[in-house]
Amino acid sequence: MATLxxxxxxxxxxxxxxxxxxxxxxxxxxxxxLRVMEAIEELGYIPNSAARNLKLRSSKxxxxxxxxxxxxxxxxxxxxxxxxSQQEGYIINVAFSYGSKKSESEKIEEFINKNVAGLLILSxxxxxxxxxxxxxxxxxxxxxxMDRMPEGxxxxxxxxxxxxxxxxxxxxxxxxxxxxxALITGAHHLSSxxxxxxxxxxxxxxxxxxxxxxxxxxTNMTKEDAFKAAMLVCQKKIPHAIISSSVTMTRGIWEALDxxxxxxGKDIQVLTLGEESWSKSDRLPGVTHSSRTAFTMGTxVAGLLIxxxAKPYTLEKQNLSFTDDIVFTKLNLPARxxxxxxxxxxxxxxxxxxxxxxEIPSTNSIKLVSRCFSNLYxxxxxxxxxxxxxxxxxxxxxxxxxxxxxYDIFVFDVPWKDYLADNHYLEDITEVVEGPDFxxxxxxxxxxxxxxxxxxxxxxxxxxxTQGMYYRQDLFEKASSMKAFKDKxxxxxxxxxTWTEFNGIAEFFTRSCNPYSPTEYGTSVSxxxxxxxxxxxxxxxxxxxxxxxxxxxxxxxxxxQNEKAFQVILETLNYVQRSPFDTSIEEIIExxxxxxxxMLVTCTEYAGEIRSSIDTxxxxxxxxxxxxGKAPMTVGWNMGLSRYSRNKELAHEYFRWLxxxxxxxxxxxxxxxxxxxxPYHSNEILELYPWMRVVQDSFxxxxxxxxxxxxxxxxxxxSSSPERILCNVMRNILNQGMSVKEALRVGQIEMEELFRxxxxxx
Length: 762
Fold this sequence. Notes:
The chain is α/β, with parallel strands linked by helices. Helix content is about 45%, strand content about 15%. The chain is built from 30 helices and 21 strands.
């Protein structure tokens, strides 16, 4: 059997340090503690059980681990635990994991090291069999798991029969002719949530109804994520009913329905797993709540644990199942009503706004949220999407009074602003934006500045932010990875601060370079279009002090700084799966979220998609930090009013509505970024999208993606033209076999010709 000395030797620390890690007597560096815990896991070290059990006989403290306190279900369980424990003379010590597997493990370790009498756990990682076997089963710690069954371990367990309740809900709805039924739950690796899905599917199957996966949405069980799920569920067709697995999520669902003008209990049936309460004021209007006696479950698990503490070796493990009282009642569901089409769908006689756009996450968010505006103002909003970004640019400049249909609003990339404004494609909306009814001062300054040209406002910001670095935090904090990296590079494994450091980490996490790498590749680079590749190049140019032209509009492509920047990105390409020319932004996000790569560089526009994948695809949690080199690009999309629009007053009202406080919250929940300041001060939203904390700091270091400054003799140059030449440098290197120096010389000549064409003196 492994000893304390063995653990110390494996971790490369002293015996005293191992003791401190186990007892919590002194603060130990996180890196050191991780190495010690890794050694304990690998060696299967078990503390002196006899000494521990001797102490336990006099211990009267119970450790309780819950996901959070915001869910009424958890709160009622905790009340029951507290009540029963006090009656039995025990005190409880409560810790919250907030959905973090790492945090939960640390809390359990702390309770074990304090020698608590027993544990009550509602786990966010029931699949972590190795940890629970090593910490609960081997040490024979009296424990009761609640709601979520741990995998592959024989323990006490208590839960409600969620299968029976959701089956009952679904069967009753089907009997009343509610055919399109949506289900919104937590992740299905959690036994309680998987049971909801099984009950739903079995009821459909027995009734001969098909299962449609688009009606099932998985969330992280917050009201914000449930709001997003409900908006997506209703995107194409509003279901006849929605079943939710918690009241917390149902609050988000209710809000999503409300802003779309859909009334629960009238236009749609909403049923939720809820808690027993005599007070109807606790219930959401129009929502059918079930009656789980969570308080009773709490008293029962506490009683079971205390009995197990008294006889830790002889008491048989028990499985307690509680039935939801609602299954013994008759559901008063009305017969399904035939409803009229909701707002936002074209109908004769209504005013309309027509919007031309490119498909980005923010346009999908605005389509969903704008249903509220459609209902409030009795207006149809018609969206026309163009698949190619340069086709969008061309369509905007071709739009005019002779075309039918004519667009009222254009969604355009921020770098196009000066060109579109200078050539009078956009209406001046300064009086609207600077008027008393507009929320201008609450828009982030950097986003508002991107809407002005020659001191006149020509747009409002739809999305805006900077680029950031996202990385697999679980891998970066793994003790074995930290040790191996430091042994090889002589520096600690951390989020990279320079592009050289970025490349070293990318090499370390590329399996062809490191056979022990847990990921196939270190990173991905997108460059299927110039609009995707140019940002990858520019952030490295700026970090090395390079540029395409100087403050006097003199072309400076062929410089040592630019040469170094291209050498840096060419090094990065050794650690990617595909050529950047064959890789899109969507693909680099999928690579990261599926666990294929360890690092991702992208803008906040796409970060919301990372959040959607964390609880299903991404293994572990995601870390976030400032871009290496501290030279991110300011990115974003604006909405401008066409000078030819016949609905300018209505468009002005739409712009005012989009920049309201409530709208900004809805847009941020759906998209993971905001151009207004409010969401950056909301703790709930920052918990959902924690990387928003660094966005405002990133603005301090960001560079604008714009063309050269216009002179008296020159015309305004759209940034896409010089960016095309910058991308040609990369093409000449990779496709034509040119050296970096040679390709930059060619780029210098092409850029000078472009500047002459636009009237810039050379």
